[in-house]
Target: Glucose-6-phosphate 1-dehydrogenase
Amino acid sequence: QPVETFDLVIFGGTGDLALRKLLPALYHRYADGQIPDDSRIIGIAREGLDDEGYRDNLRKVLVKDGNGSKVEAFLKLVGYRPLDARKDDGWDDFATMMDKDADRIRVFYLSTSPNLFVDICNRLGKYDLNKGKSRVVLEKPIGHDLASANQINDDVGRFFDESQTFRIDHYLGKETVQNLLALRFGNALFEPLWNAEHIDHVQITVAETLGVGQRAGYYDHAGALRDMVQNHILQLLCMLAMEPPSSLAPDAVRDEKLKVLRSLKPINEANAAQLTVRGQYRAGSAEGQAVPGYLDELQDHKSNTETFVAVKAEIANWRWAGVPFYLRTGKRLPERVSEITVVFKAVPHSIFDASAGPLAQNRLVLRLQPDEDIKLWLTIKHPGPGGLRLRHVPLDMSFAEAFGAAQPDAYERLLLDVVRGNPTLFMRRDEVEAAWRWADPILAAWADSGEAPRPYTSGTWGPSAAVALIERDGRTWNEDS
Ligand code: BG6
Model:
């Protein structure tokens, strides 16, 4: 179904996110016939480019996996305006261009540093561009703590009300995350078991092989907790742990997610040393290549920014009391993999002889990337004669095999949801605040401890303390898949 004609303006239009993710996502939706030909997509940045120059840059990116004539047709929708959010020059013209069709859906995507948000919104307000069917999209992380997030939300909120504000977390657009909803609430099988009585613990791993590379300027002020855990991983945790919403209506879902965030047990200076591990990568290898350490990339030998974090989180409510959620994420780990593992409790009593082999616990493994897949690990008898020997095997649902074509990128779905005005998969202001309320005391405890993050060699699974964090509890990180 094509969406209504729209204008989409990307501030930070020459940046990495715009060129690598947003514009290719729009191209793919266009090539699939979902974007009407009279829509407009406008990149904005300070660079003095013109439409043609911008299209040339974009063409280079799109031709890699696009169809030549469709790329050209798409590029006709694309334009560029050099604008500085802090100066008036050019804004009049831009406003006139946008006003040509003031009844249109207008999306302003702020893919810039958050310290420009208020200037951009000010100008949009000054030129009345925040009126009508206008929407604003904010990239994560929203701020670097609760106070700065509130400031941003207040500043943007002076020009766009909550229903116009789309706080994006691209993990919510990933296919497997949507599948989590289908799996949990479309099957009778799991929900009765989805609680502390039957689930032993949960693991969420988001591992990357990349280092911080070009993004060191941003990353060094953020670190893994702000960059990945406060948003992506907590959002995954919410989808996994929330009570069944009464419908998929945006606020029905977001109300339930909010309750999870508010039920997270506080981690602070009293327990951060037991419940969290911070790491920072040193030189080592990534995908067979020798790579430098974080501090070398930064050219600063003092940074205490973490590039790895592991946390033992708990949700203090009836459903989840006593069930640990082990979370870990890091750069320069041995493979790129994002996975949620739900480990069920052991059977209460084994009827098998020791010779049958160990009786493993059932696991449900939801893999988000690199390839989408859901595996349910079950115990069966090893086939054939030779007595009753037990084996742990997966019931395997690989999406690529089952459904062929590659799944659309998360941004494809989310950008069209903004155009459609559907905020279900976007973070409401109170969710962002609740997530910071949990993250802030952890960050404060780390800062107060005066300790540096633990070093780990690039190409390993982080500091050994992260292994100890889970093994202390008699459990291990999932390696089955
Ligand atoms: C971004 C983070 O939000 O997500 C990056 O800022 C990270 O540091 C990226 O690399 C990971 O996204 P994906 O979709 O590749 O898992």
